[in-house]
Amino acid sequence: xxxxxxxxxxxxxxxxxKQMMTAARTAPKAKGCDIIETILVTDDDIHAxxxxxxxxxxxxxxxxxxxxxxxxLAAEAILLIGSRELPMGLNCGxxxxxxxxxxxAGVPCAMNTIDVGIAIGSxxxxxxxxxxxxxxxxxxxxxxxxxGWLPKxxxxxxxxxxxxxxxxxxxxx
Length: 173
Description:
CATH class: Alpha Beta
CATH superfamily: NADH Oxidase
Number of strands: 4
Oligomer: single chain
Structural class: alpha+beta
Shape: globular
Number of helices: 5
Largest sheet: 4 strands, antiparallel
Helix content: 40-55%
Number of domains: 1
């Protein structure tokens, strides 16, 4: 049997993106509490995400969001990584409050934010090991949040994924 890379690329990217999901899941987390949620977006859902991001960009007059809305259409998959709210009770002060009990409502626990960052780093390291094209995007993650795609998460970061001769998420207009 003969396989042409061009014929198998899409499926390979999807399988690699699933490995990125596993890397995000197994990344270290504060106090061992697993508050990370991940989903993988493909095909028509990428277009839905692009449309939502375009609309947000137009409403807010944010050229970067409108650019990103077009840019994510070059992705074969988009990994979304979010965090559920769970104060760690460490009284670390990184949120700006002396104790977790004094933290203002709506202010995320800094440890939750750090956990998402570590999960993103693990996912992107996996992508780099597999020689995939990626970019970390708050904008597409924000649009996914507005769509309610990870409903228990208070914020989401998006990582579009592709495999081409040039990274479309950096080599852009």
